[in-house]
Amino acid sequence: MNTVLSRANSLFAFSLSVMAALTFGCFVTTAFKDRRVPVDVHVSKVMLKNVDDFTGPRERSDLGFITFDLSADILLEYCYSKLHVLHSTYFTGKWCLNQVLNLRDMKSKYFFFDDGNGLRANKNITLTLSWNVVPNAGVLPLVAGSGQVSLPFPEAYETTKSY
Amino acid sequence: MLSIFKSIPSHMDYKGQKLAEQIFQGIILISAVIGFVYGLIIEQFGWTVYIVLAGFVISCVLTLPPWPMFRKNPLSWQPTIPEISGESIQKPQESLKKKKHK
Asked: TM spans, by residue (chain B) (predicted)?
């Protein structure tokens, strides 16, 4: 501790250890919270097509287009950076600090393909919202919202069904 | 260029070093506690980091330069003995050379 460099070295190492302990404290205080939130999903329009799927099997597959509304009261304590809807990313952005999520008339960004013809006249298609929590320190849970909507898909292709 | 920095004296005496270590540890621990509590209340970890960094900067300013408060207890060296003759210089040199040959 006789030279400036030696003092600076021990100062820096000490603050880094303290910072690591604080980060652990942050993890302990936030990782064990129950983050499920009631979610309100309404679907306004569903359209079904039977097209060639170039990424999947060679037969024609069902392609669904869904237009929906979504509202959820997600209490965000630390910044979450992605919102995953229907197990694929429909909306990405930075959400910080207690924003109420309200999406209206969202069209699906990724193709809702079914390998095969399972979507036509399917009595029960269930849409749920689930999101990844990306905390500053700790585990990365996938949280499922507690609301869902089930709806039958149209019987025929190329027709729109309004709800 | 380095010789300029080396020529600035930056030493502290031993009691001063102990005082400096206590000062920076105390400041950083206090700022860590304050920062953690504040970050927990407003639910943002970023503010915790900012407060700890502020404590780090304060303790840098207080302990890195050799302030006079760290030089209050200088070591008392014995007075230097002036050199008497050339023999007393050569003898230790010869004994050093013998040790090296072994």
From this structure: 21-41, 47-67
Q: Is the ipTM of this complex over 0.85?
A: no
**Mind listing the pLDDT tens digit for each residue in A111-156?**
566 655 655 656 666 666 666 666 777 777 777 666 666 666 666 6
Residue B25 lies inside a defined structural domain of this protein:
yes
B54 inside 8 A of chain A by CB: no
What string of pLDDT tens digits covers the 102 residues of chain B?
677 777 788 888 888 899 999 999 999 999 999 999 998 888 778 889 999 999 999 999 999 988 888 888 888 889 888 887 665 555 555 555 555 555
- Domain of residue B22: give its range: 13-46
The answer to whether B48 contacts chain A (CB < 8 Å) is yes
Residues of B in contact with A10 (CB under 8 A): 21
Beta-strand pair A160-162/A101-107: unpaired
Task: Verify that A38 and A28 share a domain, yes or no.
Answer: no
Q: How many domains does chain A have?
A: 2
Same domain, residue pair A3 and A62: no
Q: Is A19 on the interface with B (CB under 8 A)?
A: yes
